[in-house]
Amino acid sequence: MEGKGKELAVGSGLSKSLDDTRVDSHSYYLARRTTMEMLRDRGYDVLNEDINLTLQEFRALYGERPNVDRLRISAQHCSDSSKKIVVVFCGSGIIKVNAIREIAADVLGRESLTGLILVLSSDITSQALKAVELFSFKVELFQLNELLVNITKHVLRPKHRVLNDQEKESLLKKFSIEEQQLPKLLKKDPTARYYGLEKGQVVEVTYKGEGTARIREILECVGMAEEGLPLNVVSSAQVLAKCGEFVEHKRH
């Protein structure tokens, strides 16, 4: 039961928590910039002047040891005004259930949201994770050091483009295939997380082939491995060497 015994901290898996000596203005500056780029790439209205803020300008606004409450980001979707998301940067201590309750009371008290992103500088307890699941909308968790670099800008990262519902239906019709026949992309894949993909969404991935060739592959986002995935699951971090039925070569 809640309130009995200690809350056990849950590690972040691939990322380690940042200690107080590392959570400085530079780390927050990089993570906040990547987060705003991520929101923009998801279709939210984010000002370029905010994204292009220099470190010196950031420090002038927020100081060397920023107050995380001031780093909060609120954005509305460009094509759907009913979609609104808030990004909350959490402090450097372990996130416990009371912290999640405080965040819920704060954001729900003044915002009508469809999404929430929590940027953590440390671990989160198992009870706090359960509290996150009680929100009526999607809540995403990122460790601060997962956002220090925008993974979509890496030279080896293929270009991803999320297809809308009409493009998805046209694709299935064009190749006379069923949705379950598409190659799969795990929902926990770093690029899927960056774009906030949901199960059933489809992305077009463009790889550089030999010379000037371009290889395009279509992947469908699916849930976690324990949900029972087909054998053709791939990760966007892998370089796919073969071309399947849904791959198109383009030479420029």
From TrEMBL:
Belongs to the archaeal Rpo5/eukaryotic RPB5 RNA polymerase subunit family. It comes from Eruca vesicaria subsp. sativa (Garden rocket). This is Uncharacterized protein. Residues 149-213 form the RNA polymerase subunit H/Rpb5 C-terminal domain. It is found in: Nucleus. Keywords: Nucleus. GO terms for cellular component: nucleus. It comes from the Eukaryota.
